[in-house]
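This section describes the prediction task in plain terms. A model, or a person checking by hand, is given the sequence of a single protein chain and must write out its three-dimensional structure as a string of tokens. No templates, partner chains or ligands are provided. The sample shown here is typical of the held-out split.
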Amino acid sequence: MFRMYDFKMDELMAHRFLIFTCCLISAAICVAADDAQDTARLQNWGEWRGPLRTGVAPLADPPVEWNEKKNIRWKVKLPGLGHSSPIVWQNSVFLTTAIPYGPQLDPVPATAPGAHDNLDVTQKHRFVVVCVNRTDGTIRWQTVVNDVLPHEGGHDTGSLASASPITDGKRVYAHFGSHGLYALDFDGKLLWKRDFGRMQSKHAHGEGSSPGLHDGTLVINADHEQQSFIEAIDAATGVTKWKQNRNEVTSWASPLIVEDGERVQVVVAGTDRIRAYDLETGDVLWKCGGLSSNVVATPVAAGGVLITASSYDTRAMLAINMSGASGDISGSRHLLWSTTQRTPYVPSMLLIEEQVYFLRHYQNILSRRNIRTGAESAGPFRLSGVQDIYASPVAANGRIYITDLYGRTLVFTHGDQPKHLALNPLDDGFAATPALVGQELFLRGHEYLYCIANSETFIDE
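The expected answer:
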């Protein structure tokens, strides 16, 4: 019996050891997979505010100087019109566009109250997702995802393809607001689609909120003049995970997804309140008032501190300590500081380390504040050579890049006393935010997509 007992104990211990070893191997595989996924995310530009959602590309080192005859690896003529920012994953550059076609029709009247400065809709449009070869600029594929006569044309400085696509490295997701949300594989095959119905934007100025994406969940913000809502969607299937109505009017801010300890928060700025939702359940975790109407800038966050801002009828910037925030935190200790000075309207903020950079309205006045204290160690600065800035600032390798509507990109150093490095003109206009990947910078203009790289490539038109 003793030997039999020993044998069974040895067999049991061996079985337990095998299970323990398998668990260790599985854990190691999961850690390795997570590490690989994090590395891939940092090496690419999978969403319009970059891999950190702050405007910073931590592993990129793009050129400082360029013009039409210097450091242009390639440029490609784009079909249609779109102000969506390009995203880059490995050897693919993705963007969206809206292409008018067919006979000229009588203009579709803008029925929104207070409509002004709008583009007339006189043709049907094809809504298209485009994939460009990163190496040589050839268009790999163009997938038409919708074909319709739009109900409004948007503001005359905007486009019908203003929301930027987003990718998880497996699929690319394109949001056209009233004209649908679409998932495609990297070969351009449509995998699923969603129709959220017709939305009416304020003054018929159009839609432009880009999706958020985290761990298999897509989030869209649909603030408009009727029943606004936020919706979380399974990225693999297109099935709704949760949906919450919002007591909001039109905004153009994109959802910011923030990991805060055990919670993953979806933060959305709005006229009535900025709110944080639980990514898993959709429950409102906290909310805070204090912004203006017509919120456009998307918040940024780092180290548990969130910065949100607006500038339309009034100016406001709030710094919020998200740690442990719950309920209505307006005026509470979670509000670290606030200001009404020189806050941004169209361009979003840039966050480098613990310094937030922002532009006054959409003008060339740059401010910089510490995210925890609100202190201005230097500035404000008037940026020479650029004006009317819709693209959001981006940064890499200690340099900041700001691009204006007239084709010029100002490059200067990050620091208490920014140093001018270059002013780079191109023969296009830019409302889309640049993408910074590796040694390259991608600029999406009204007509062309540029790949900027350190070379002596000359472009013959």
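For orientation: The longest strand covers residues 92-101.
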